Amino acid sequence: MVRFLKRYTGTILILIVLASLLVWWYNNRSFDHNVMAEVPRHDDLDESSLLDGENTSALLEESYYKYYYGFVHEGAEDVKDVHITIPSLNYSAISETGTTVEHNLDGQFGDVIALRDEKSWVEYEVDIPQDGFYRIGMDYYALEGKRSGLVRSIQINGEYPFYQAKQVEFQRMWQEYGEPWYDNQGNEYNPKRQEVFGWQYRDFIDSEAKVAQGFRFYFSKGTHTIRIDAIREPGAIGQLHVYAPQVIPTYEEVSAQYKQNNYKVTSGHYLTFQAELATLRSDPTLKRIEDREPDTVPFNSEAIVLNSFGGLSWREGGQWAEWEIEVPESGLYNIGVRFGQWFLNGFPVQRKVYINGELPFVEMNSVPFPYKQEWQVSNFSQSHEDDYLFYLNEGKNTIRMEVQVGDLGEVLELVTDTSQKMSELTREVIRVTGTNPDPNADWKLDRNIPNIVERLESMAWKIQDAVTMLTLFGVDEGSSEISTLYEARGVIVDMSKDTRSIPARLNQFRELQSSLGLWVNGLSKQSLLMDYIIVKSPDQEWPRPAAPIFVRIGTSINDLLLTFRKNYGGVGTVYDADEEVLDVWIARGRDWVDIIKQMIDEDFTPETGIKVNVNVIPANQSQVLMLANTSGLAPDVALGVDGEVPIDFAVRNALIDLSSFEDYEEVAERFRPGALIPYRYDGGNFALPENQNFYMLFYRKDIMAELGYGEEDMPETWEDVMEIIPILQQNGMDFFYPHAINDTKMAINEFAPFLFQHGGEFYTENGSRSALDSPEAIEAMRMWTGLFTNYKIEKQADFYNRFRSGEMPIGVADYSTYILLSTAAPELTGWWGMKPMPGIRQEDGRVNRSTGGLAQTGMIFKDTEHPEESWEFLKWWTSADAQERFGSELEALLGVEARWNTANVEALQRLPWQAEDIDAILEQWEWFREREVVLGGYYTTRYIANMWNEIVLNGRIVRESVEDGVKEINKELSKKREEFGLDVDERGGTTE
């Protein structure tokens, strides 16, 4: 080997250099603007001429930008000097149910209409005096609900003018009450946040803030109907306003007005207002957070101090926070903030800035905060030669800052539109070539698909236009964040030059489309961290943005030394070892555990007198608990434990049998019976479920309707699914069923629904033998793998993005998909639905939809000296009240993306799910059934994955693959039972 290297070292180095140059050339050719030099534009072509008239997204409404610019191109303009006010009770029609008349809500508007239930609505007729663009807004009062913002939709003359009008959010108001609390280690924690009820005004604006200003609605002269539908949360309408768009003055115009009004420029004043002391905020997720930069005020080198505001929680369009500031005299001041923006690499984030409820001048509609890996100071006027001056009244004033994506909105629109067109083209190609085309065949796509070259060239130019707009926005062309656009542009141009290569590159085309979707989602998140607000006279200097490097190094060294003196595993108040105290270990993130500890200190300990120490352990690392148990250092209670773990401890006699407590059966009724199966062993019950996953059927109403399937026609059984799949594939689409190729642990969960629905079991003879060779199990395996072999559905796919694009308009997915579609796909509002997953029809006509969703549990160790107290704690934690509060607090802290999927049925119904969605979930839960956990069961997990690989990827016969797998599983089951001294007749797991 050494001789070989000596002889060929030079050759190897040359090859490495050539390979590097090749990679460099390939990557940089897409970055070369000359790549577009020979690509013609098609701006003069009507966009519809580029399509073949079979757009599967035809039922979806157009975007706001297309709606607005369509009317602009026809000559539409803003109207002037019009303001129509419609009192709440002056409606023309109203829904029969779900509405009430509220009396004297704060006494401002008298009697008003309230939309209380989902799908309740009210209509108003308005006489429009002249053609043109109008703004629409309303006074609203958020009534007590489930803590989420109000969501309303608006229709004009019975139609949604654009898709953003289907989901407009009207935020609630929140404030802190009480003071921050401190544990006995001096660490600070956020005070509680409570809702403030009162009237607010808000225009109908983009809920994602991707449109810089409020919506402009086009009305022709005459009578029109405006309908407002309740999508989420109850609220009252005070007055509806239809008015001429306001012209916001520029800073130059405002500055001239200052001089006319003889406003005085103040001097000698320098004031700071801590950002963490916001007086109002749009939702309770906006909170104080800790920053360890030494110049951040206040700073505590020895403990956690919540000294800044926002961060990752302050990123969603429309979120706002408001501060009350007090100045000693009326006059002109500079205003700025000390901020951190290291979240969006290479891109500035934006905020709207209101002073005393108004935009002072148009530049405050989109204030940029540039990217940098350290703290900065913004004077709100980076593009202005001099600092802006703001007029403030003596005494109290308010500053409100609201998340704004606006300037990026049109860029994101271009990329989203291109992604959708890529999806449409993909489906058209598949109609010609089929789902598995011969890559060497010449399919003559330029003849079979109208204008395919022109369409590809148009897509490439849209990507190029997006890049150009980003550079004008101040983004460096070499930024890594733009590389996705360069890559997409290069591939599209290559395809336009050689359409014969398209079938072979279709997977690459799809992956790029998914990447573009992720890119858009990422840029939509506009996080910003703030330390304090600066209000100063122009003769005062701005503060330094960050501490010198030697000060920061000193702080880092101090933090390192602190780790040797301080217990970072403990959370909240830590009681001394000589006290009588429960020791609880929780395998979750720090933010989650902070909430649990706060609930313990505020609710559980005062009610029961039981003191609790809480420690954080790494998630998904059960070996930490096993080592602790082996060494005699196990806690009393463990939470967040993976569902398969309790039996590993139960067989070692390390857990308390919870059914030994008198009220166990009463507590067990909180959960679906099938949720308790994995925690049974040898007649005992050794854990309680905390949360659980669930699978549902998701479908696109618009696309399925175009294929001839109404909501009532959605598949009930797998036979129905198999009838739909060929129709989908004939139209270039596909059905989705989850399969994680690189995660063998998931295979057993993917197979379990088919097994249970066929009446099969994983094990027989008390868990001593595999039952996968039974006729029911083999038929289940045949059906499961047949989806991929006979029906050729995708083996792996990004369902969320393909669902949005329309490539996979129907499929089975877990609740995380529900959260994504609810929060990050506003264009699909009203166009997707969720039903229980398909199943097998039984002799009595019912459809067996059995499926599970193994998640996390709580358990009590046998070595505890406080078994009764531990049981009291576990009962409290899994109760409906505690689970509801935890879910609400968690969602308030981290947003709806962290919605707690509690296993407590009552608590699930209390959390802010939409009514029709929770009904579908509860219907699915009627069939909730978890799989058994037995000694050696990891071999079942491994071999089910192997069976799928052999059958689907290698074409092996189902029975042969299953029987060979069962032999190996049985060997391991016997081996593990022998290891633990169990006979065949003894229970070796959760089977009955």
From TrEMBL:
Report TM segments.
Answer: 7-26
Key word Cell membrane present:
no
**Could you tell me the superkingdom of the organism this chain comes from?**
Bacteria
The protein's matches in Gene3D superfamilies, at most eight in alphabetical order, are given as: Galactose-binding domain-like, Periplasmic binding protein-like II
Give the UniProt keywords, A-Z. Answer: Membrane, Transmembrane, Transmembrane helix
Pfam families in UniProt: SBP_bac_1
Keyword Transport, does the record have it? no
Please report the name of this protein according to its UniProt entry. Extracellular solute-binding protein
Lineage at the top is:
Bacteria, Bacillati, Bacillota, Bacilli, Bacillales
